[in-house]
Amino acid sequence: MRHLLRRIGFYLVALWASITLNFLIPRLVPGNPAQVLIARLQGRIDPRAEHAMEIAFGISHDSLWRQYFEYLGNLAHGNLGISVTYFPTPVATVIGQDLPWTLALMGTAVVLSFVGGTLLGIIVAWRRGSRLDALLTPALTFLSAIPYFWLALVMLYVLGFVLNWFPLSGGYDLSTEPGWTPAFLLSAFQHALLPAFTIVISSIAGWLLGMRNAMMTTLSEDYVLMAQAKGLSQRRVMLAYAARNAILPNITGFALSLGFIVGGALLTEIVFSYPGIGFALLQAVQNSDYALLQGIFLIIAVAVLGANFLADLIYVALDPRVRQERS
Amino acid sequence: MQLNKLKTEVGVPQVTPQLPFSRASVATRSVPLHHNTRGELQRESRWRTGGSWLAANPKVAIGLGIVGFFLLVAILGPLIIQQDPTALSSAVLQPPSSAHWLGTTQTGQDVFAQVVVGTRTSLLLGLGTGLMATIVSVIVGLIAGYCGGLIDDVLSLFINIFLVVPAIPLAIIMAAYFPFRGPLPIAIIVTITGWAWGARVLRAQTLSLRRREFVEAARASGETTLRIIFAEILPNEIAVVAAGLVGTMIYAILAQVGLEFLGLGDVTTVSWGTIFYWAQNNEALLLGAWWWFLAPGLCVALLGAGLAFINFGIDELANPRLRKERRAKKPSQAKKAVA
Amino acid sequence: MIPRSTISFVYGRGRVFALISLLLVLITLLAACGSSLNTNTARQGGTLTMVPGPVGDYTRNFNVFANGSVLNGTQGLIYETLLFFNREDGSVKPWLASSYQFSSDATSITFKLRPNVQWSDGKPFTSADVLFTLRLIRDHPAIDYSGLWTVITGMTAPDAHTVIMKLKRPWVPILWYLGGQTYIIPQHLWSSVSNPVTYTNPDPVGTGPFVLKSFTPQLYVFDRNPHFWQPGKPYINEVRYPSFNSNTSADLLLSQGSVDWTGLFTPDVNKTFAQRDPAHNHYWFPPSDVITLYPNLTKYPFNLLAVRQAISAAIDRNTLYRIGENGYEPPSHPTALVLPANQSFLSSTYAHTSFALDTARASSLLGRAGFKKGSDGIYVDKNGRRLAFNINVVSGWTDWVTDCQIMASNLRAIGMDVKVNAISFNSYYSALQTGSFDTAISYTNTGPSPYYLYNSLLASINTAPIGQPATSNWERWSDPTTDTLLQQYASSADPAVQQEALSGIQKIMVEQLPTIPLIYGATWYEYSTTRFVGWPDQQHPYAVPAPYAAPDVEVVLLNLHQV
Prior knowledge:
By secondary structure, chain B is an all-alpha fold. Chain B has helices at residues 46-56, 58-80, 111-147, 149-164, 167-177, 183-209, 213-220, 225-236, 238-261, 272-281, 290-318, and strands at 33-35, 41-43.
């Protein structure tokens, strides 16, 4: 219990640190969104208009401390501010519209990658020294060293453009209306296939290798030897004795990577023109859109912290030794 | 996640110390014992071990070969390539030919020259940043693990905060707001986002080593804390540090290439990442100019794979249970997977 | 219907005559049918898909005043302007206003509004709406992008179809901003809006040819407005705007023929687009503005005319055009007039002037100004200062980065030590505004005549001392003659007086080189005639053809019809 309380305390501090970092970084640099907008418009601007725009955008020239407390106060009310890029839409709306796509795509891809990688890792570890190990492990390692965006671009070009097997862009076929209809869900599924496939390919090696190594070490434990001596079937030993213990680090790794789902889809979205908040983040950076930037960063930080907390809980639940010792 | 995925890879013992293999002492003797053909216990000379070990582990040999090759290219390449890789010409978007081994770009620049000259920048940045991040993680991790108490609490807090702060968005934000562009901002950003993992692992290792007899002995004989940490404990963790170093280097290379691809580096310099950036901005794919982005991509992948293979070797060195079974192989034994 | 005389001929001697008459009658009948077909060739119907640019997912923002973030089509397709200015030839057409008249001293303008115009909800459009729109702009300076109320002093509406604007001083250019760039909104719906600056206007009601049919973040659709004031128009039934995150994916779709109209930069438009279907895939990139090298005139040595002339003579604009800009953006005319759009304003003195690469002239100019080449090949002045400087550019604008690299190598070749400074947009823009740069490459602001470019670039009111933010005159040109000429243009509605002023400014541009014009900026425009015809092109430049140009997008869509 004490352990849990300590962890909660830590996460609160981490949240505060993220928020503050988030607040500081854009403000340490010259320029503000009003200027960016004016430049984008390339128009004659009356100095009064620029000033008025700054007010409308919520750009204040108050001291940093005052801005900071105002920011914290707004946050407490759930007011994430108004986006400059999509002025005058509130940031919460922009995020709310993009987030589900990111979660759906990345969530599915990560789960698939984890499950696939772990299973393969178990098999490969069991058949250590076999041709499967000798082939699969280096091949997947090589794949995971390929820069993701490069892999994505090549797949898009070859499988989408040249061979026409997959749609080229978007989250769904624009002739269908979004909604919980079979037509929409089918087209959303079709459009998610290629992006998800590239994500899985490039990340599966990590899970596989982690599981493989953990398995190989576990397989040398005495209780595994004992189980085999008792005459249990290979499968039972592999799954119920070895894998069950070896999977612990991978599970916590999985919980952690859930947190990175929200932040990690940027390159996918750019290459596949897939809807989501990664692209919104890039836009926010380019347009000095502080409010949107902070909003997205906050969501990501909360997701990551939440996932970490989840990982801690899982670990406590799965491994009794943690409950007894100090971590 | 794409840039962080390699954290969950090869051999770096993950998460917290209470792991099934924590009892497997990572602080093994640096020279292995084995039974020779006469059944006697023998200690081999280091070099013989190294040579035959390399032969027995083709993956590691390949890895070292690849990295060595790129290092050679990085050192010698710009000296051999006479032409200026940024020189424009009218030979626009030519496929590979005898005049241009890897073809040309949209502005007539020679891709081969760019890849070779860019190797130095990319490699130096990647390896250098990896080293920087590892040094930071070693210092923080070891001190936190050994000292305990308040120091440990504070340092742990830092480690955990930097672990949970999402790397890509932070990297993008920082890179976009730096007043100047270039390798230095990228190096700083990658270091800031990359040191925490290694620190956490090392801290865990140090915690478990803290109570070992040799540490007690050193403490009893009056050695200073710093000396104990860096002269006693560190050498026993060298395998973990090495694995972490290589892993961080892979992360650094991929992160740097990713950031430059997004245009957050200095686009007027030549490196693998900026080649991607220009290729992407000039729609190389759409124009069918596969030669423009194929070479840099393969280089990054090869280098990353080479480093990962080296990591295999380090893992196996550190954790004997991961080693391949090399003794008298009976056909029936090949089926059993017992170490 | 065969005339009786023909019947009698058939049975008589004039058989041939009869046949010929029959033929003539048939031909006449056919011709009659044909001509009636001609008047109805504009088929009704069709759905057009357009991509103005990759902006990512949409947010439901139809606030016509939100210039940077309002959804494309709101300005023009839903809301309209009083007049239509065709920037491709400088002509003006009546639109919501059927006529306008300047008073003799040019301090007031009278607009006569078109009768029988309705809002899409059926209510009538009257002068009250125009007054309301302008009052809103006055009360909320944040949306007064053109600074209308720095010139307008008052307005009245003597009747439902007349509006009189009073100006503080004679300023003819206001017609462009007021008549061509201000969109009229309905008083009966906007009077209840508390803050028009932050209002998202989710269900827009306007006088334009289209109304909103549906909206999702990835796609929004307009339907034709049955109440539109031009009879029979629009011919098109529906306009679709799918969203894109990047040029790549939009370009891929363009290559496949799934869109009708885009405004995308694509590196080899011939190969990726035109050649895929030469019969239907077309493009046209008319010049839109002048890409200019801004020297910081307050800094030595850019205050020396000889140095500016030398720099200009040493730059190979053809390479910028062919290699830096993929052959899309030809060298600018030395007067900085956008040609051929501004052809009618070109002074005869400069009809045949053009930029030419002349490194010999550059060297002799520098020599006569007292520069000598040092041992490292770089020019040095009498006091030992090296001729070395930076060119600022935004690192994400890759074609300009390439241009700067080309210029730097041109200038290094003749003996100037030039470096390219590719920086973030924030830093770049800040440096321009506060004057903390050596030289920088940037665009210019244009309008229906060269006055707007000259005013923005050269008027001393648009500049500021170093350290203070300048609006647009970043090079810090401050010259009483220029200001007088600009004033002369702006205070007279007489085209002859205006042209005299413009000729005078052209002389200043060419002889004194306050900035160094490089190449033209391009209007990106690709279209397909597979489904629709009536597009603007080089022979019919009836509007700025880019899908992101407003309100020109309206004029183009009104002209299009199915094949």
